[in-house]
Amino acid sequence: MLFKTKKKTEKKELLYRENIRVNCKAKTQEEVIKEVGQMLVDAGYVDQPYVGAMLKREESCSTFMGNGLALPHGVEEAKKDIKESGIAVMTFPEGTPWGDNTANVVVGIAGVGEEHLQILSVIAEKMLDESAAEKLANGDIDTVYNILGNQ
Hints:
By secondary structure, the protein is of the alpha/beta class. The protein contains 5 helices and 5 strands, in the order βααββββααα. A 5-stranded mixed β-sheet has the order 1-4-5-3-2. Strand 4 (86-98) and strand 5 (101-110) form a beta hairpin. It is globular.
């Protein structure tokens, strides 16, 4: 009798270097959310409808966290569109408008189950350190990866 073995799929890393864009030029908030959301789609973390859910979240409540950090993520109903937890990062050394604020670091987040809360917490905590926030906003891909990729 033949048995089918369930193929194990390796869990994705939370952040890949390909999902980091540094030295970005200012864009509209909507353009930034679409771009960082598309990075999550292209990396296989989420399905396409999640990007719309990220825009919907921003309409209901700003994801600007202070200290130059914005953490766009989808509304609760979009949980079904998340395949794996992951993040994508865009940095804006000169800043980009985020509502009435200016964001220097934008981290798009997709978290399976309650993992998004842990991801949000870890990133927000790292950004409380002003030197880390400065390094993220102005650093190269390796700097960003070393600060945010080790979670």
